[in-house]
Structure formats: structure tokens, C-alpha cells
């Protein structure tokens, strides 16, 4: 989280031995996060990173990531976007 190099960074991690990668989806009001994750989320939001951006990047380029990955976010985003 925090920059637009999602695919590049995740690919490098997977090529260098990561078993699984957690991809954080930024949220505007992260009340349960610590200061580092809060700051990363704010930087990501300022750069225009949204759940739609992340889904788009993973749909287009996710096959480059050679390990499993999961999205980490607040349920508010899932409720707004829809569980499907």
C-alpha cells in the first residue's frame, strides 16, 4: 500500500520467495490501524489508489505474481463495493 507499483513490488516479492502477499486497500478512516499503516493508506489515497484501481491492476497483471495474495481492508469498503 502507498504507491502505484503494486504489480512490480508484488512480482519481486513472489520471485524472491514470498509464500503469500498481503495487499492493503487504503481506507479514509482507518481507526484500527497504527501510525505506519495509517500514513501508508493516506499516501495511497493521495495517489488515487482505490479498490477499483487495485482490482484493475490485478485483473490485468495479476498473473505476473507467482504466489498467492490476499487483500486486506476494512469491511466498510466491502459493504460499499458489494461482497460479490
TrEMBL record:
It catalyses: (1S,2R)-1-C-(indol-3-yl)glycerol 3-phosphate + L-serine = D-glyceraldehyde 3-phosphate + L-tryptophan + H2O. The keyword Lyase applies. SUPFAM superfamilies: Ribulose-phoshate binding barrel (SSF51366). Its EC number is 4.2.1.20. It holds the Pfam family Trp_syntA. InterPro entries: Aldolase_TIM, RibuloseP-bd_barrel, Trp_synthase_alpha_AS, Trp_synthase_suA. Pathway: Amino-acid biosynthesis; L-tryptophan biosynthesis; L-tryptophan from chorismate: step 5/5. One of its GO terms (cellular component) is cytosol. It is an enzyme of class 4 (lyase). Signal peptide: none annotated. Keywords: Amino-acid biosynthesis, Aromatic amino acid biosynthesis, Lyase, Tryptophan biosynthesis. It comes from the Bacteria. The keyword Secreted does not apply. GO terms for molecular function: tryptophan synthase activity. Tetramer of two alpha and two beta chains. This is tryptophan synthase. It comes from Xanthomonas citri pv. citri. The lineage of its organism: Bacteria, Pseudomonadati, Pseudomonadota, Gammaproteobacteria, Lysobacterales.
Amino acid at each position: 500500500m502507498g504507491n502505484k507499483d503494486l504489480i512490480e513490488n508484488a512480482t519481486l516479492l513472489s520471485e524472491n520467495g514470498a509464500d503469500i502477499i498481503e495487499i492493503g486497500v487504503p481506507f479514509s478512516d482507518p481507526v484500527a490501524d497504527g501510525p505506519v499503516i495509517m500514513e501508508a493508506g493516506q499516501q495511497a489515497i493521495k495517489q488515487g489508489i482505490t479498490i477499483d484501481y487495485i482490482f484493475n491492476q490485478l485483473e490485468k497483471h495479476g498473473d505476473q505474481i507467482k504466489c498467492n495474495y490476499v487483500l486486506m481492508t476494512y469491511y466498510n469498503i466491502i459493504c460499499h463495493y458489494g461482497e460479490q
